[in-house]
Amino acid sequence: MPSHGELTSDSQSRSIDTVVAWIQRIYLPRRFVRCCPRLFKKNNPDGKNSNNDDNDKEHSVHDIPLISGVDHVVNGSLPASESIKICGIRPPRYLFYMLSGGLCDVLQLALDLFVHRVLVVEDPSLCWAIGFALSIVARHTSHRYLVFGKYVGGYWSSLGRMYAGYSIIIFLSTSFNFIMTRIAGVPHYMAWAITLLWTGVVNYFILKRLWSFGGQNNKENKKAKAEGAKQQVFIKRKERDLEHGADVRNHLGELKDSTANRRSLKDDAEIHARFS
């Protein structure tokens, strides 16, 4: 018999899947899509229009979801930068890096405030170094799901490489922060913001190299992406087959009705000829 913890975990998983499925069932209004020819052409290369009305419950294969690919992020098969599409268009990877980094910057600021005000550490450079070092664990997880994808060599190996790569940035940024606060006399959190601006850009290029680790992770992500694309093609093909089958059934029904009508007219003519 499953334990209470397993039942709770299964229930949470089903709830998350339900929310993700609901999000991915939100489609752009067709009138809006038809008003944007470039958007329609990009997501409907064969140029076919849907004949269904806006109030139809069933969606055509040519309908454009507001957001797609969330399920791949939740199950961890692909990062958001390689699976998420908004209105059928994939945003650039750096946008997801900014989102991931921004969330972790808020955490780093909270850690800096905690060290400065609760632990009463007066040195701004030391507060920066401690907050930055502690936020790397959160950055590691956030970048895995939003930007770069699966860990290469396992979680701990990837985290160790990240700390090794960030060690140079921690030293350089702490030194820069020290010069800003002690020599230039810049206030604590103004120097914190200035230091954050340039480290964010440099970190992206360091992480891009560290995470790929000789291209192994890129190969894994491309493989997962190819498998996901095959699944999407298979699903769309099935949907087209179903639509085609419905069209054939409707056509056969019309032929059947037409044949029945002709037989009825023929019978009426024979009866009329017999009694006339």
From TrEMBL:
Tree of life domain: Eukaryota
Transmembrane intervals: 163-183, 189-207
Keyword terms: Membrane, Transmembrane, Transmembrane helix
Name this protein carries in UniProt: GtrA-like protein domain-containing protein
Native species: Trieres chinensis (Marine centric diatom)
